[in-house]
Amino acid sequence: MSSTHPWSDHWSDPSVAHPAASSTPHDDADPDGFSSAALPDEHTRLLPNRINSEPRPRAYLSPSDPAVSPYNLWTVRFLRGTTVALFLAAVAWWLVLVVATFVTPPGLHVRGSPFLALAYASLALLTLAVSLLFFAAPSRSARALGLAAAGLLAADAAALLAAPGLRRAELWPGVASAVWAAAAAAWSAAVGKTVKWGKAEEERRLTGRPETRRSVAEWGEVVLATAGLGVVAAAAALVTANLVLRAADGGLAPPGERYWVDGGRYRVHLYCSGNATDPATGARTTTLLLEGGEDPVEQGLWQFAENAVRNGSIRRFCFADRPGMAWSDAAPSPFSASTASDTLSEALSRAGEQGPWILASAGIGSLYSRVFSSRHGDDVRGLLLIDPLHEDLLGRVGSPGRGFLLWARGVASPCGVERLLGAVLRGRSAADRVWGRSWRWSGKALFSRLQESLVAESLTRRDVVSSRAIQDEATPLVVVSSGKQLREDREWEDKQRDLTHLTRNLLAWDIVQDAPHRVWDSLEGRQVMEKRLRGLVRDARSQDPASNHQQRGVEPASYGI
């Protein structure tokens, strides 16, 4: 009797004879008359189609048979195991960099933004995850996208090494993460190519020919793998474009100088303008020391100070960008008001600036100025608080929702869609991106604001409350408030009133009715600020502290009605 395997009509190679019935069938033969020992598994890869030297050819299997698998090959199994190990390493590195966006581990501080290294780690993690999920469904489109991403990421690594500004900002974590992401993308493409070879090899050996058709499930895997690697390639392209912008922006020289602080870990930008000594007496000039609020000093307060010098209201002014703002490097976390005060003091000392000072500060910057004032009481001759933030309202800055939103925007910041659109469609310049309208979308800016949020209700609040207890009560004080802010927020008004009691020497509390929170953006606001500044310069420490005790009940002057 002779019989033919039911699959042989469709799958057998015409050059191979069909199996015939044996006159001495095996005891363990299956219903089709074939030995179960002849069924292939991963241990029979190197055996020929004749199993155990049987005198008859082996039957071909259906392509849908689970035994037809590239995992039969030791090479493919080794690549999968290695990919699993790389994926676990990628998870570990990604977790370390996530922690670094909240608390800086030793050796992982970067002067730019930790979000760039995290972005590269995320791309590596996504690439390896896609490679593992769809390991047995390689496709030409996925390999092409993986190679494109690898090329872009390799170019990023080269740019980070070649551009001095980028190299100093991102240091080794950024460069290593870019190299890691490029290697992961290249590995994914190489693995896909090898699995494709192994799949064809096993199909040829076990079914008689490579299978060119795909099932619906396989097409679904191909589509998902292509989409995942498409996201990686698109994100890599956006990151590369933003690195080009950053490299170009590095040519924008800062006014003033940048000084190394905190043991040479990062630099703070400091700018001073005007005569350091009085031409008539030779004494040191009382210098206006500006502290920005939610935005850098360069956005308006710098121009206000320049006009005040031209108008003769002051002779000299200085300002330092807080770490992470404008031309200053990012500082490691946590970064509180006390740390900011120490950083400013060190930068001023290295620049040879000694005061005396009149401190003018806005918004949240007023908290930093108050801490600085409490630690330099002998050198501070006056306080000008411009719509200042009260320490009791730090909960708004440190709310979990705001912190998470800043972190999420920071994670997306290396792609820089807003900055790219601003540069391409709106003609935004390098100055816009360094300190202007596009500044707030940079990874460094988002990181600095996240740092403020993380310690607002803990370290910073403690620093400010302590500073109030040791503030020199004889220091002349002026508070200028936004009328719009007071009308919109009753609690803000109560806290502005409380800040007028910061010292016993309140000179004035002015409310500029039509001014926004950035009071200097209105003409009335600038006029009031300059008027009060002129008085502080002229009359600093000229009043007897005891005579000012009665001024605690002074009603605010109102402007712009």
Topology of this protein?
Elements: H1 8-11, H2 74-100, H3 114-133, H4 140-162, H5 164-207, H6 216-249, E1 257-261, E2 266-274, E3 287-291, H7 301-310, E4 316-320, H8 337-350, E5 357-362, H9 365-375, E6 380-386, H10 394-397, H11 400-412, H12 417-425, H13 430-434, H14 443-470, E7 476-482, H15 483-488, H16 490-499, E8 505-512, H17 523-539, E9 557-559
Parallel strand pairs: 3-4, 3-5, 5-6, 6-7, 7-8, 8-9
Antiparallel strand pairs: 1-2, 2-4
Helix pairs in contact: 2-3, 2-5, 3-5, 3-6, 4-5, 4-6, 8-9, 9-14, 11-14
Pfam families: DUF2417
Keywords: Membrane, Transmembrane, Transmembrane helix
Region (Disordered): 1-39, 45-64, 538-561
Overall description:
The protein has 561 residues and is an alpha/beta fold. The chain folds into 2 domains: 70-249, no CATH class; 257-396 and 440-559, Rossmann fold. The chain is built from 17 helices and 9 strands. Strands 1-2-4-3-5-6-7-8-9 form a 9-stranded mixed β-sheet, with helices on both faces. Helix 2 (74-100) packs antiparallel against helix 3, helix 2 runs antiparallel to helix 5 and helix 3 packs antiparallel against helix 6 (216-249). The chain is elongated. The chain starts with 7 loop residues before the first helix and ends with a strand. Pfam families: DUF2417. Keywords: Membrane, Transmembrane, Transmembrane helix. This is Integral membrane protein. The chain crosses the membrane at residues 84-103, 115-137, 144-163, 175-195, 216-239. Residues 1-39, 45-64, 538-561 are annotated as: Disordered.
